[in-house]
Backbone:
């Protein structure tokens, strides 16, 4: 076929040309080199070439941040226990045991505020992105969610649903309107999730603003419009928009690129 005929066909059927462009612009997720320039390119190249050691080194900053978050959050409780240990005379074992219980609650309240502080100073605000797992652009995603999981698995389940878990997710960047109820801690990528006014998230529902496909990590916003209800154990993936007053049935799964229009009552 001549080039002229080929071009005419692509003009008559535009999606053929678009598909060719997409294929030519696809990232090689198995590449051991980087398209970035300078030091960033060198670091990403090493990260990809030596995936095991590279990943371990890439996780070093979040490991240090974990130590700082845990240490600062444990400190108030430790001071309380030390004071009780030094000054308690009457019913000393009981008072020390009670101080340990109080120390855990002090840890929980502290970690709720300490983690968002470190999330902010590390500039871990995610942006929509598509690329390989072993990329510099993926590191903020790892770090942001690692901080969320630290709070989730050590305390957050104990204060869900209360205004405390809503406060935590707000401080982590989630956009939350008035009258929202969140009865789950199964949430990742909070800074890319929007819950408008009067949204209800049912028990153990899962919300996240990413998905994996064909070797790619795709980070894309998740939006739940005003008055919508997400049922028990439903899963809402990245790049999903749930319309106003829509009810997502329990145990449902909304796959990426799902759009539910206003007026749909049950999914």
Residues:
């Amino acid at each position: 076929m001549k080039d002229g005929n080929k071009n005419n066909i692509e003009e008559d059927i535009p999606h053929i040309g678009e598909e060719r462009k997409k294929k030519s612009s696809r990232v090689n997720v198995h590449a051991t080199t980087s398209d970035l320039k300078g030091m960033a390119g060198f670091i990403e190249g090493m990260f990809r070439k030596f995936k095991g050691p590279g990943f371990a080194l890439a996780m070093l900053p979040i490991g240090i941040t974990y130590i700082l978050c845990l240490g600062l959050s444990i400190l108030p409780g430790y001071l309380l226990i030390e004071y009780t240990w030094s000054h308690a005379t009457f019913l000393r074992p009981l008072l020390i045991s009670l101080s340990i219980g109080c120390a855990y609650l002090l840890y929980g309240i502290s970690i709720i505020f300490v983690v968002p502080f470190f999330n902010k100073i590390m500039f871990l605000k995610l942006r929509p992105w598509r690329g390989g797992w072993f990329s510099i652009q993926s590191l903020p995603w790892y770090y942001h969610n690692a901080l969320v999981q630290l709070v989730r698995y050590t305390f957050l389940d104990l204060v869900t649903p209360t205004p405390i878990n809503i406060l935590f997710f707000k401080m982590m960047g989630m956009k939350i309107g008035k009258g929202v109820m969140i009865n789950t801690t199964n949430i990742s990528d909070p800074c890319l999730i929007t819950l408008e006014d009067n949204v209800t998230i049912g028990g153990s529902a899962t919300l996240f603003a990413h998905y994996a496909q064909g070797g790619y990590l795709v980070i894309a916003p998740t939006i739940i419009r005003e008055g919508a209800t997400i049922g028990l154990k439903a899963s809402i993936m990245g790049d999903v928009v749930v319309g106003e007053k829509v009810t997502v049935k329990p145990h449902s799964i909304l796959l990426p690129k799902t759009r539910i229009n206003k007026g749909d009552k049950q999914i």
DSSP finds eight helices and 16 strands in the chain. Residues 1-24 have pLDDT under 50 and may be disordered.
